[in-house]
Structure formats: C-alpha cells, structure tokens
Amino acid sequence: MADPARTLLLEVDDVPGVLSRVAAVFASQGANITSIQTLETIGLRAVMTIEVGPAADVGALVAELTAVPLVHRVTLEPSLLSIYGKRVIIIGGGAQVGQVAVGAISEADRHNIRGERISVDTIPLVGEQALAAAVSAVARLPRARILVLAGAIMGGEIAHAVREIRRQGLLVISLNMVGSAREAADLVVTDPLQAGVMAVMAIADTATFDIARQRGRTY
Amino acid sequence: MADPARTLLLEVDDVPGVLSRVAAVFASQGANITSIQTLETIGLRAVMTIEVGPAADVGALVAELTAVPLVHRVTLEPSLLSIYGKRVIIIGGGAQVGQVAVGAISEADRHNIRGERISVDTIPLVGEQALAAAVSAVARLPRARILVLAGAIMGGEIAHAVREIRRQGLLVISLNMVGSAREAADLVVTDPLQAGVMAVMAIADTATFDIARQRGRTY
User: Fold this and answer.
1) CA-CA distance, B32 to A14, in Å (whole number)?
2) Selected residues 166-185 of chain B with any CB under 8 Å from a CB in chain A
C-alpha cells in the first residue's frame, strides 16, 4: 500500500503549459512521478493529484511547487490506493452484475475489516462492442486487479479483449455462460455470489486463495 | 461525453523527467491537457493516458510525441468517460452497500441501454475515520457525480466530509440511519434499493428526476 503522505494535491491556474511547468519541478529534483490525475476544473482553477516514488523528498517538492506563480495551493493527501485499495471490476448484464457485486462487497467487507482495502466497481452494459471496449479499458483503470464477466452470453471480440488484458497481468473470472469468453478466462464460476466472493479472495492479501492453482477449472 | 478520439495512450521510458518532456510537447502546441493518468509500469516502460481539450490538433500531437526519444508508442483510445461514464459511489457497511448497489446497477442498466454510461462503484468500510476519509476522497475520484451513504450509523467527521464534498459540487443521498450524516445529505431514502435507483436517476441525462426539487426530504 502506498505511503499516504506521498500524494500532493495542487490547485493551479487552468492554462495550457501549467502541467509542463509543474512537471519540470519534479524533474529538476529527480523525483519520479508514479501517478498523476487531473480532476475536474472548478472555475479558473484546475486541481491535480501527483503521487511520487519513495525516493522523492516531499518537503522539498512542496516548497518548490509553492513558489511557482501558476500554483496556488499544495497540500498532502492520502493516496487513493491507501483509501480505496485494489479494485474488483464487474462488467455485464444488470441482473448478473448486481448479484456478483453482492457477493464481492460482502467478501470485501470481511477483508477490509482485517486491514485490507478492496473496492468493488461495476458497469452494466449491452452489446458485444460496448462490452469488448469496457473489458479492454480495464487495463487502463488505476488499481484494477481482477475482472468478473457477469452475463448470459459473451464471445467474439469480448473473448479477444479478455485474452489481451490477461496478457497485461489482470485476472479474469467468468460466470458459466454461453459463448467463447468463458474459455478465455482464468476461472469459470457458476454461482454469481460465489464468483464475487472468489474474485475478492483472489486479490486479498488477507486470503489464502491462489487462483493460479485453479486456472482453467469450472465451479 | 468526451470525444472518444481525444485520448492519447503513450508508452514511455520509466525515468524521472519523462512527464516533463511529454508535457512540454503539449505546452508548445498550446494544447490544454484535461486529464492525465499514469498507469502501472510494465518492465522499464511506463504507460500514460492523456486527454486533451477540443481545440487541440491530435494529429500534430501524435506526430510530435512520436519523435520524442523517450516515447516508444502513441495510440489513440476512447476516453474512460465515453466507456465507463459518470460514477455513482456507494460507501458504508457491506450489507447496505450490497443492496444499494443492486438497485443502482439495475437502474443504470436501464439507462445505459438507452445510450447513457453510468458506473456503480462501491467500498465497504468500518469506522468513522476510514469512512470520513473515503467520503472526502470522492471529490478526487474522476467522473464521480453522486455518493450514497449506506450504513446503520454515521456522524461526526463523516457528516463534516459530506458537507465538504457537497460544496465541491457532488450530490449525496443517505440511507435513513442513526447519526448526523443523514442531515448533511441532499436527500434521505429509507429503502436501499430505492436509494440506489434514485442515485442513478439523479445523474442520468435520460431521466427526468431533479434532486434539487427533493432536497432535504426523507422517503
């Protein structure tokens, strides 16, 4: 889990070039930016959060950033990883997504009570193109660790997207359903509650479940 | 919804200063970066996505970025807003979070079928400090529009955090529960399924529900 004091929240002028100016401060100090996120603009001010690597001198960064004319405020915040933790992503039809979510949320509650931080994030969608795009983009979601395919029929481009994100290091559990997406997953689970529970167990440090030992199986 | 072709995905060397070099390209073209996200590093390569404003010349940016020695690959991707849309965030106890999620996912499904894009994202947590930190940080979650407080007792610092994020433009629905957090919310709803449904209706362009007309009420 990231050090909660290594995220800087900056309020800056919303003008082209401001990021370049801010990034130059980090570069001049040799500080490695591990994550940066610009939030929605409020009035003429843009808000951005920047997480730095363990070697960076946060105090020196705050001092130098505060001296930049375009920068109005610098505060230290806990990282989103320390607050919301690792993410289980559930994509598919509303009926199944809801039930997988109930299982995952209930299991995440049990682990979060013991010091874990796991979120359960979902989107109900219809159609091969929309689902394949959503599956592919899981690789671009920060802190996402595992995907659950929660539908009644998925194949074609969705199966292709599943293979692609698995190559990028994500785990995938599929409900037992019609179509070829199931065959592309790490694990197939028939009961939606159980699928949600297993997804959380697979990424919780507080669990002893090893999905590598279950690869290719159907429950 | 953001133009799906205005997000650039860059594969770059994972070295200090790379962001500064990349940001300088955008600055030199006067392109306003609306959102930037660095993803987890794969080997010696870092992957980042950068969304630009409507005035930027994406073709010219791709050409100039490709010429930077630290940049190995530039591709165009649909924006996360166009794929996952606006976010409902549900925070609280596992039992309630699960049921609010079922209501919200079911309602989001109905709107997403009609062209909306709404995600339902959750975290079950215990304790005033953890909950207050999670509520405050909703203001830092990209695309978050509304929060549902789903618990049996919330007050103190949580109520303070609710007022703070409402000042930053977020909507808040609370379940009918013990404690002062309820009084800080826009709307109080007793049934968890209904609370989830109303949260989605409040942010869906495809719905006719106006939460401003319900402010301060209890259902």
Assistant:
1) 8
2) 168-169
Determine phi and psi for A165, rounding to 5 degrees.
-75, -25
A192-203 helix and A94-113 helix, angle to the nearest 10 degrees: 40
Contact criterion met (CB below 8 Å) for A148 and A104: yes
Token reading at A33: 């930016």
B207 touches chain A (CB under 8 A): no
Q: What is the pTM of this model?
A: 0.91
Q: Among B32-41, B50-59, B117-126, B175-184, which is the least confidently predicted range?
A: B32-41
Give me the helix-helix angle, A18-28 and A58-66, nearest 10°.
140
- pLDDT of B52 reads 85
Phi first, then psi, for residue A145 (nearest 5°) are -120, -35
Query: In chain A, which residues have their Cβ closer than 8 Å to the Cβ of B42?
Result: 168-169
Distances (CA, A) of B65 to B58, B61, B79: 10, 6, 19
**Would you call A140 and B19 a contact, using CB atoms and an 8 Å cutoff?**
no
CA distance A98 to A118: 17
Nearest to B24 by CA among A17, A70, A31: A17
Give B40's pLDDT tier (boundaries 50, 70, 90). low
Contacts of B84 in chain A (CB under 8 A): 123, 134, 137, 141
Query: Does residue A126 carry a pLDDT above 60?
Result: yes
Chain B neighbours among A 78-117 (CB < 8 Å)?
78, 80, 83-85, 93-95, 97-99, 101-102, 105-106, 108-110, 112-113, 117
Of B9, B16, B42, the CB nearest to A27: B16
Mean of per-residue pLDDT scores for chain B: 91
Nearest CA in chain A to B108: A124
Mean pLDDT of B68-89: 92
Residue B48's pLDDT is 87
Q: What is the mean pLDDT of residues A64-79?
A: 92
Query: Looking at the partner chain, which of A78, A106, A119 has a beta carbon nearest the beta carbon of B133?
Result: A78
- Residues contacting residue B3 through CB under 8 Å, at least 6 positions apart: B54, B79, B82
Measured CA to CA, the distance from residue B155 to residue A68 in angstroms comes to 39
